[in-house]
Design a protein that fits this description.
The longest helix is centred in the C-terminal third of the chain and has 17 residues. Helix 1 packs parallel to helix 2. The strands form 7 sheets. The chain has a 7-stranded mixed β-sheet with strand order 21-20-19-22-23-25-24, covered by helices on one side. A 5-stranded mixed β-sheet has the order 3-2-1-4-16, with helices on both faces. The two termini are 43 Å apart. With 646 residues, the protein is α/β, with parallel strands linked by helices. The chain folds into 5 domains: 174 residues, Spore Coat Polysaccharide Biosynthesis Protein SpsA, Chain A (Alpha-Beta Complex); 89 residues, no CATH class; 42 residues, no CATH class; 187 residues, Vaccinia Virus protein VP39 (Rossmann fold, 3-Layer(aba) Sandwich), CATH 3.40.50; 79 residues, no CATH class. InterPro entries: Glyco_trans_2-like, Nucleotide-diphossugar_trans. GO terms for molecular function: transferase activity. Keywords: Transferase. This is Glycosyl transferase family 2.
Length: 646
């Protein structure tokens, strides 16, 4: 068993992951035999970064190490779930979780392994000082302060004398004040050992030099300094024993919100959050190409609400920081706290009566409304061109929605009729429906959700952006309505809730996968992870990807057959086979029982152990157990292979 698993969550940052792993292999070759690498890839499907990263991790990163795993994770998009996945697939006794753009001084990993060897019973969570780009200045912890839409600010710990008080200096107006190093809520005025009062009246500017002159010293200034307790730390680097990991909140999604929460969670279990001075790290903050992932504020606030409720904390601090300054509307806050788990998305933005909504109500044509709404960054605006494109191919559209973006996209396509079951009854929705009617579209609008509707009239396109996103709800919707749909069923939130539903149970794929297996005429023809995910299924053969020529298919299958024979004709385990076929069933490149990329028969190729998906979508697997590393539950039933074996 490896002594240490070094794991990183990845999202479209091959450059960072490459140099982070290579620096470790270059700087500490002597301990790599005890180190396992795990990369959990949260990138969108077909990411160019992923296509470069997987062969690197499964190839070169394994050389000279205790192993390396590349784990595709296209379930919940964010930071919490992929980091949790690191601990789930790790085999090392201890785990070092890191951002995929972090560097360490030589010898750091060796000392961390030695630390765990010397402390076999520790269940604490560990961090180390963040060293800035000048490679001199550093920060030791996160202080309990709200700033910049975050709970926690970078801070430096200080001490009075050997065995004396430890404290954090904090700015109060223009002066310095001091707090303890647990969660930083208790003011510190003097040293408990020497009774020396901490200096008062020190201005914040230049306080470090003045504290040094007064005899105080920064904690963690030298790598050989003693470890010390801290409130928490940025999670670019953190570590604990694999079996001691407590996990992030299971319903957290999106990016941000875990700092201080996870450290307090350890404290509430009787453990500590500690700084190891030797665990120094440099973090690449600069992003010349911009941040590649979405950063919805609502998701971050929701994470804080979920976490504070778990810790038993009042929500007042969150409300004061986000709602009072207008970063989050009171309506959004009320919607969130009413059901933090179920309300994973904000309420319809246009029901807030804000300036953006007023602009839409002043539009004169559906086309104008469409253009304006495209610029309004919400939960659906980036999908509007695709929705319009699909609606342009049909005459009758039915939607179950909770916002106006979907309706606007469909109206812009000018179908003959739109039936809208939409819980949005705002002025904006009323204006848009009237615009559509004036342009000759027959519109029926009813303020209802799918549970309130027993059947729908025959339609060409059904759009489901329901008030709940889980397998149970989608299963009910597909059973009731799919028989009335002639061509397209479109589902939103398949990235956010594809694998885990907003009720904590099975996600949307838990209902979609068995539906596709039992209804072979339906196939996925489009999927994107962008903006919480959008998946389109169709039963029109014209929407499927074309297969290669017969000659090309024959050549590709012959090549795969030779590789299979050369490898000893090893069969995939039943579990691995089902996992591969599940991925194929949900893939937009499938055409019947064949892959449109290579043309091979899916069930045959998926059953050969050594084979790979031409798009690298198949889950990796444990070489010893042959069990797949999957981030969704494979539905097991008697007809599980029917759609692929026909």
């Amino acid at each position: 068993m490896p002594k240490l698993t070094i794991g990183m969550a990845h999202y479209d940052d091959f450059h960072g992951a490459y140099f982070s792993i290579q620096a470790l292999r270059l700087n500490e070759p002597d301990v790599m035999k005890d180190v396992e690498f795990v990369v959990v890839d949260n990138s969108p499907p077909n990411s160019k970064h992923s296509q470069m990263l997987r062969p690197f991790v499964e190839g070169w990163a394994r050389q000279g190490t205790a192993g390396a795993k590349y784990v595709p994770f296209q379930g919940t998009i964010g930071t919490s779930a992929p980091r949790d996945q690191i601990f789930k697939v790790a085999t090392g006794d201890a785990v070092l979780a890191m951002d995929c753009h972090v560097l360490y001084p030589p010898g750091t990993i060796k000392r961390l392994i030695e630390w765990y060897d010397d402390h076999p019973d520790t269940e604490d969570i560990y961090s180390g000082p963040l060293v800035y780009d000048d490679l001199h200045n550093f920060t030791t912890h996160f202080d309990n302060v709200w700033r910049g839409e975050m709970w926690g600010i970078w801070a430096r710990a200080w001490k009075c004398c050997d065995g004396g008080v430890h404290f954090s200096a904090r700015q109060n107006n223009q002066e310095c004040e001091y707090f303890d190093l647990t969660l930083g809520k208790t003011p510190v005025q003097s040293c408990h050992k020497c009774n020396k009062p901490l200096p008062t009246g020190i201005s914040w500017a230049g306080h470090e030099n003045k504290l040094r002159e007064a005899g105080y010293r920064p904690l963690g200034e030298h790598v050989d300094d003693e470890p010390f307790e801290i409130p928490g730390m940025g999670l670019g680097v953190f570590s604990c024993r694999r079996k001691a990991w407590l996990g992030f909140h299971e319903h957290a999604s999106g990016f941000g919100g875990e700092e201080l929460y996870i450290h307090e969670k350890f404290r509430q279990e009787g453990r500590k959050a500690m700084c190891l001075p030797f665990l120094r790290w440099v973090h690449r903050f600069a992003r010349p190409d911009g941040v590649p992932y979405p950063l919805p504020r609502y998701s971050k606030v929701r994470n804080y609400v979920l976490e504070f409720q778990e810790l038993g904390f009042s929500l007042d601090e969150i409300h004061d920081h986000f709602v009072k300054p207008g970063l989050l509307s009171q309506q959004q806050w009320d919607h969130l706290v009413e059901d933090p788990i179920g309300h994973s998305s904000p309420p319809p933005a246009n029901s807030c009566g804000n300036a953006e909504s007023n602009e839409i109500t002043k539009t004169k044509t559906v086309k104008d409304a469409f253009k304006r709404m495209l610029q309004r960054e919400r939960d659906l605006n980036r999908h509007m061109p695709k929705l319009r494109e699909l609606a342009e191919k049909v005459e009758h559209v039915t939607e179950f929605g909770k916002r106006t973006e979907g309706f606007t996209a469909f109206a812009a396509a000018q179908p003959k009729k739109i039936v809208s079951y939409n819980v949005d009854a705002s002025r904006e929705m009323a204006h848009l429906t009237e615009l559509a009617r004036t342009e000759g579209i027959e519109v029926t609008h009813e303020k209802s959700a799918s549970p309130d509707v027993s059947e729908i009239e025959a339609t060409d396109l059904l759009f489901i952006d329901s008030t709940a996103h889980n397998a149970k709800r989608l299963n009910e919707e597909l059973k009731k309505f799919s028989g009335s749909v002639a061509r397209y069923i479109v589902m939103h939130d398949t990235a956010l809730h594809g694998n885990k539903g907003d009720d904590g149970g099975a996600g949307l794929f838990g209902a979609l996968l068995p539906f596709l297996k039992q209804n072979q005429s339906w196939q996925v023809v489009y999927h994107t992870q962008d903006q919480y995910g959008l998946t389109v299924i169709s039963k029109d053969p014209a929407d499927r990807k074309s297969l290669p020529s017969t000659i090309t298919m024959a050549k590709n299958f012959a090549k795969a057959s030779l590789a299979h024979i050369k490898d000893g004709a090893k069969a995939a385990s039943q579990e691995l086979l089902e996992a591969r076929l599940a991925v194929c069933t949900l893939c937009e490149q499938r055409n019947g029982n064949r892959c449109s990329v290579c043309g091979c028969g899916l069930s045959a190729k998926a059953g050969w152990l050594e084979q790979n998906c031409p798009l690298d979508k198949w889950p990796t697997y444990d070489k010893e157990t042959k069990r797949p590393h999957v981030d969704f539950e494979v539905v097991k039933e008697d007809s599980s292979e029917a759609v692929l074996n026909s």
